[in-house]
Amino acid sequence: MGLTLEERRTKQGRQQQENSGKSDQESAQLELERKPQGVKRTEVMQPSESAESSASLRKNSRRAKDIGAGVVEHSRTTSPTRTLYLIAALIAIVLWSTSFVGTKIAYVSFPPLTLGAARFAIATVILGIILLLRREFRLPSPRDLGMMAISGLLGTTFYFALENIGVQLTTASSAALIVASYPAVTALLEFFFFKTKISWMRGIGIAMAIFGVYRISGGSGEGGQHELIGNLLLISAGFVFAIYNFATRRVVGRYSMVTVSFYQTVAGTIAFIPLALIEHEQWRVPTTQSLWMLLYLGVFCSVAAFMLYNYGLRGLTAGTAMAMMNLVPIFGVALSILLLGESLRPSDWIGGTIVILGVILSVRERPRSRSEG
Question: Quick check: 300 and 122 in contact, CB under 8 A?
């Protein structure tokens, strides 16, 4: 039975669609067959990448071990060095603590102002030798030299004139406790002169230190007239000490501390000479003990302690250094009791404790915020 022309065209169209469907299926099958091969090639590459990664990890691990070993080695060398800094600062504090007792012993032959002039004449010679050995000898600018001279008059002549006379009139233990309040006095003057912000904690510490000094200086009614005058002179010396610190800050950043101290000591010694001449009627042949004590004050208390303390500051924070300075009155009082046979009155115990606690609060460093750090 024959097909019409229209039926033949319809049949051909169906065959073309079937052939096209088969072609699409074959293409899809071929595509599916290619994908596993690609996956296999990828899986073959993974072991080499893993090997490279493992080698890199082993290399980094060895590097980390080397770095760790270096850190351990650095810590081994750093820890003894920090201990050395602490020992140096501690020795300086002990030397300063003995100065009150040493001054009392030297008074057997030397009056106060003469002792000051002789002590700092020795210190001037030693500081000059140190500058020459270190090749740091230089002449400051006229303006800086003038500021060093002014600060030398304050910190050497005026301060030690007041302190030496004060120590002569009062006990060495009372002097050590009053001198302990000087950092609080400095903080108080900073507030008045430089508008430095004082936290409530530091404010309480300053107030405590001042009240403690009042207790020591005769606020309890104990002690004689001479002792009261001596304590007042030591308090006045604290204000001079604070002003000396303010003047020294203007030049200390441009020169080494040894250079600054040398020129300050030279100026202070020169100014001490006419003051010492006032006491010429009290001069006498010094005893051997007094001479040794004069050398001790000039060499160890004025120069060696200064050098050791500045060396210790290289490895100590400011907070640690200030905290260690609170040991000066403790050692000073202990040595006064052991070597001079002095005894502390109840007002000294109470006032000294209040002073030390007040100073600890007044010199506390304000914690830095993250924005500042």
Answer: no
